[in-house]
Design a protein that fits this description.
This protein has one domain. It is built from no helices and six strands. Strands 1, 2, 3, 4, 5 and 6 form a six-stranded antiparallel beta sheet that branches. A hairpin with a 4-residue loop joins strand 3 and strand 4. The chain is elongated. The protein starts with a strand and ends in a 6-residue tail after the last strand. The chain binds zinc ion. Zinc ion (ZN) binds next to loops.
């Protein structure tokens, strides 16, 4: 397993804020990626600490890429209410 800083650090991503309850720009304060597995079966994770540019609320976002899945799995903490 290896962990390295991810290039998304410092960028702004658009997503729903749990406090503003609407889509706002979130700044990526820190981002790391880690991967493990072999060429056939692998998992890659991107972990991001993000901050709402409207209310300064901080959230945690992770993206998981599995070798057998084409769509990444995205998780947010605190979780967003889906409508
Ligand atoms: Zn906000």
């Amino acid at each position: 397993m290896s962990t390295t800083p991810h290039k998304s650090t410092g960028s702004i991503i658009e997503m729903e804020c749990s406090a503003c309850r609407k889509k706002t720009g979130h700044k990526v304060l820190a981002a790391f990626e880690s991967s493990k597995g072999d060429e056939i079966l692998w998992i890659e994770n991107i972990f991001q600490i993000i901050q709402c540019q409207n209310c300064e609320e901080i959230s945690f976002r992770s993206e998981s890429f599995l070798s057998e899945n084409t769509e990444p799995e995205i998780q947010l903490y605190p979780p967003r209410e889906s409508k």
